[in-house]
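One record is kept unedited as follows:
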Amino acid sequence: MPKNKGKGGKKRKRGKGDSMQKRELITRDGPEQEYASVTRMLGNGRVEAQCFDGKVRLCHIRGKMRKRVWINAGDIILLGLRDFQDDKADVIVKYKNDEVVQLKKMGHLPASAVVNEDNDENSDDDPFVFRAREGDEFSDEEDDVGEQPDRYGKLPDYDDMSDMSDDEINLDTL
């Protein structure tokens, strides 16, 4: 087999967890770009985003960002608008929470923009919400199980049989 001539593997190529360096804040460069909030993920590198100009656009995550920058619902992103399709756009940058705060202070984002801070691992909020169907009655108490149905009839009392020998056991009573 040939000898490996590289200088490391997957971790090295990804940067070995370099220290967090501040990146330069990229702002909007004119009318061909717009800030937006991600409303939902559609799959296949696409997201639906609510732009701050009031329109909902279908956005495509560019290849440089795929599998490197993870975008979730509620994130603030910068879009590149298309000249020929007004309802579609391309994701240019995903902003981090501190960058969103900085953009608000600079006046680039409206005050109504919400920062998604769901990065807490110890949050008590359940990400899943279960709703009862109409007509179903569910109690909120987990301990209220109620009486279980007797499926097998009366089970024999094995404590009373411990003093009997094998010859005395009547199989018809079981």
